[in-house]
Amino acid sequence: MSLWMILPISLPVLTIAGIWVVLYNESCEEPLPLQRGAVLCCTPDNIPLISKCGTLPPESCFFSLICSTGSFMVMLIGLLRYAHVIERHQNCMLNTAGLSAAWICAAGLIMVGNFQVDIAKVLHYVGAGVAFPSSMLFVCLQSTLTYKLAKTQEEYRVGHLRGGMALLALVALVLSGVFFCQESFALQHAAAIFEWTYCMLIMLFYGTFAFEFGSMSGDTLTVLSRGGGGAGGPSFPTSSGHKMEAEGRGSNHHQSDSLSML
User: Fold this and answer.
1) 8 Å CB contact between 74 and 102
2) Residue 71: partners with Cβ closer than 8 Å, 6 or more residues away
3) CA-CA distance, 258 to 248, in Å (whole number)?
4) How do the pLDDT tens digits run along the chain, 262 residues long?
5) What one-character DSSP code corresponds to residue 33?
6) Which residues fall within 8 angstroms of residue 91, CB to CB, at 6 or more apart?
């Protein structure tokens, strides 16, 4: 069991806990008719979307920290998953596309976290427009890749789990986008609910990589140090492969010596 499995588990644990803390601090402490002040919560202008909950300090600082840390972890998990596929199987277009989608999602997540919607709306929405579709693309690619590489019954179960989560995430993303464009106060709240649901599903999806990362070894990092492999190209030999190859050469050498003596 490799300690690398802690990485994909820690991403949903820290991120989900963090954004719920942000929501709790920003949540309404009293009903809307009793609220006083310039800014009222749970109004058409302040729907509890994830971005809105992280607009004002100190929640905005915590929100930026969560997004920046999560972005780094997404990049790292995507890179290690890419190397693990090459090590265990071989590189392919799906694997390369999955890495690209993860890194694009990380770039969008940094923009979302560091440009609050009420301060830099255009940049924030550009980041959201990058992060949401690319994260959806990532889970779809990884679900397909899991099925493609599955050989055991347990690997197929992981594929079923990821496929189901990807389908639910797609439904949540579509409904969130549709309801977000409506003027209705109730539908705007429904959009917020589906947005939160989508983000929870994506984070939990990353947590499922603990299944593969549990068998990760130093050979995975060796693949990265050698620059990976071309799409569809052969995988790099691991240390065990080098050992078997060396033993094979030694055996052939002894056989040739025996024949020469005869």
Assistant:
1) yes
2) 106, 107, 109, 110, 113
3) 16
4) 678 889 999 999 998 888 877 765 555 544 444 445 545 455 556 677 887 777 777 778 888 899 999 999 999 999 999 998 988 887 889 999 999 999 999 999 999 999 988 888 899 999 999 999 999 999 999 999 999 999 999 999 999 999 999 999 999 999 999 998 887 878 888 998 999 999 999 999 999 999 999 888 777 778 777 766 544 444 444 444 444 444 455 555 544 554 444 4
5) G
6) 85, 228, 229, 230, 231, 232, 233, 235
Tokens of 206: 């990353």
Q: Which positions ≥6 away from 255 have C-beta within 8 Å?
A: none
Q: How far apart are CA 158 and CA 162, in angstroms?
A: 6
User: Which ranges constitute the DSSP H helices of 27-58?
Assistant: 50-53
Query: Residue 105's Cα: distance from chain center in Å?
Result: 8
